[in-house]
Amino acid sequence: MADDEFGDNPLSPLKPLQYIKPTNPPSTTTIPANDPTADLYADLATPDGHTLLTATVTSQKTQIAELQSQLDHFRQLSTDLQQQLNQSVDENLTLKTNISRLYDTAKLELKRKDTAIAQLEQEVMGLKQRRR
Fold first, then answer.
1. What is the maximum alpha-carbon separation in the chain?
2. pTM, entire model
3. 3 in helix, strand or coil?
4. CB 6, CB 14: distance < 8 Å
5. What pLDDT shows up at residue 45?
6. Is 55 buried (19+), middle (13-18) or exposed (0-12) by CB count in 10 A?
7. Dihedral sign, CA of 5, 8, 11, 15?
8. d(CA 64, CA 12)
9. What is the mean pLDDT of residues 91-109?
10. Residues 105-130: what's their mean pLDDT?
11. 22, 24, 30, 34: CA torsion to nearest 10
């Protein structure tokens, strides 16, 4: 085994991490414009003479505009669909109410007709008993 408790064994526990304070803080100086490293990628140009960065920015702006257009379209579509949903919910509620009222009316009508039939049957029975 190794001398210390962590050793070289890959299965041994890892040593705890320790924060080491940097001795030199990061530099806050700016690069002068005439410094050759200031424009590091200036020599990378596209065939039409634009730099890659300019081409990338233009491409990204075009893509942002297209995505914004799609977003506007989908927002409008969402609004339209929400209106259709609300209208369908209202129509559904109206239909349920109407069906419920029709059902109740039909039940009352059947009850009224059953009562009328029962009365007529009693009259028939009374007439039959008078004939005898």
1. 133
2. 0.47
3. coil
4. yes
5. 55
6. middle
7. positive
8. 51
9. 97
10. 95
11. -120
